[in-house]
Request: fold
Amino acid sequence: MTIWSEPQPDSRFVAVDGLQIHYKRAGRGPALVLLHGSASSLQHFDHAAALLSESFDVIRPDLPGCGLTGPRTDRDYRIPAYTATVADFLEALGVPHYAVAGNSLGGNIAWNLALDQPERVTGLVLVNATGYPEKEVPAGLRLTRNPLLRPLLRRVMPRAAIERNLRANVGPHSTIVDDAMVDRAHQLMNRPGNRSAFVDFCNTDQPDRSAQIPRITAPTLVLRSAGIDGQHFTRDIPGAEELVHPHGGHLLPEEEPRWVSDAITQFLRSSTDTPTH
Reply:
């Protein structure tokens, strides 16, 4: 059985903003950064990254508060803090230009990077991304805002609750939620500090930058599952393209890694000239 709470043979670490950022890197070609969602980890992109590494230098970190990176000492889980840390992470790796693709929270960070680092972001892929205030909050996140449950969830995150959350976030026909997936999520959530970081994140008031989204200049592809609400990126980002998966859920890169990787590869090849690192 894989011990997900410990480094794997291809794990790497780099010191950034007081954190030891855990990341994996594989492939050759233009740099492509993959950002996972909340309560997740870089393994979210395992299958998609394997496919994408045939064409790109694929870099995927565990975001602060997640995976093997662990919590921030300042407990700052605002999107601008995530965005600055990702920018500093890529600076530490010596990657001056990159395309960035993100799922959910990772998509939110990705489009904020495109706003804040327009000279560096050469392409943007938003996969069921967040960032609009009317986006529906998942049930699992709402539970952490209950003042009675909050202290309990800092101490324990039951495996059954994690399994229910995973099943609620995949499409109706998906079969990807198995014991191995639940074990991975449970092990990583229960690493020291990660539970409290998740509770802190869910109880953080996020700034609303959605009015600035039309200022994004990077070529943009929106990948969306048909049942996902509260997204207006295609409407608001000039020239954005959109592909809609008919029955995928929130975890589209894990549910449909070939569909996602093919869409990213075709888009970046046709619309950007990302410098090779």
Remarks:
- The beta strands are 12-16, 19-26, 31-35, 57-61, 98-103, 121-127, 220-225, 241-245.
- The chain has a mean pLDDT of 93.
- The CA atoms of residues 31 and 209 lie 26 Å apart.
